[in-house]
Amino acid sequence: MTTAPLPSALSPSRASDFLQCPLLFRFRAIDRLPEAPSAAALRGTLVHACLERLYELPARTRTPSTAVDLVDPEWARIRDGRPEVAEHLFPGGEGLDTWLESARTLVRRYFDLEDPERLEPREREMRLEVALPTGLRLRGYVDRLDVAANGRIRVVDYKTGKSPHPRFEDKAKFQIFFYAVMIWRDLGVVPARLQLVYLGDGSVRWYDPTEEELAAAEAEIGGIWARIEEAGRAGTWEPRRSKLCGWCEHQALCPEFGGTPPPLPSPWIPASGDPEHG
Question: 3, 34, 90, 143: which sits with the fewest CB atoms below 10 Å from its CB?
Fold first, then answer.
């Protein structure tokens, strides 16, 4: 039996990885295998950065043209920090102009869904780390937290893709309820609204959770962690084949595709500062 070095805290993305495929969780959270970001994922990073920066400006200047003007400087900042990624995705600048214009389209569409001149978020890109009553630590980043004058809290999550069919919205719903559980435990307040803003097709979905629903979500998260711990104790991370395998970078190491995973890292006790992003 091999004891795997589990992460020090659970994030929404890593919990979703485990639900999708325990072996994918292992590759990302334990082996920490490198992955090259896709153009879509990098565009999401760029658009999120522009929307975060938008709310640093005076309210009256938060216009579509001002927001679009943020795309180029924010891209320059990302590119300068990760030049190898930019060159990998856009060798010699090929395809870059079209990609940047697609980011501008998403930024413009945001104004069809909300009026940023009327909003003053309490937090943007809010880092949360809380311990549940069970001792399980949760970690993640909330895109935006709005607090009304009466104290009502709204959690907002930007999605740069299209809204899923109702049959397939469980992943996004799980993620935003994960954030809501963290806020509930951190602030002692049940958020009044959980809002998903889909820039890909200009739609918004929301949930108004009850304390009972958050308690159920918390129990679900605890159950996922218990299964992760069980897999860690056994050193067995089973692959789960699905349509999503087509987007996985680790097929060469997956038994479902004739590969062999690398040996598990030596057991260790993770430090409290071990990075884990949601």
Answer: 34
In this structure, how many other beta carbons lie within 10 angstroms of the beta carbon of residue 159? 24
Pairing of strands 203-207, 193-198: antiparallel
Place of tokens 């940023």: 116
Partners of residue 157 on adjacent β-strands? 196
Q: Decide: helix, strand or coil at residue 127.
A: strand
End-to-end CA distance of the chain: 30
Q: How many CB atoms lie within 10 A of CB 77?
A: 13
SS3 25: helix
Rounded mean pLDDT, 146-163: 96
* 110 beta partners: none
What is the four-CA torsion angle of 160, 246, 29, 76, rounded to 10 degrees?
-40
pLDDT digit string (tens) for 181-237?
A: 999 999 999 999 999 999 999 999 999 999 999 999 999 999 999 999 999 999 999
User: Residue 276 pLDDT more than 50?
Assistant: no
Report the C-alpha gap between 166 and 258 in whole angstroms: 34
Phi, psi at 101, each rounded to 5°: -65, -35
Give the three-class secondary structure for 270: coil
Q: For the whole prediction, is pTM greater than 0.85?
A: yes
Q: Among positive and negative, which fits the CA dihedral 199, 159, 121, 152?
A: positive
- Burial (CB count <10 Å: 0-12, 13-18, 19+), residue 148: exposed
pLDDT tops 70 at residue 95: yes
Tell me the residue type at 44.
G
Beta pairing partners, 147: 153
> In angstroms, what CA-CA distances link 247 with 41, 52, 237?
12, 28, 19
Q: How many residues are present in the chain?
A: 278
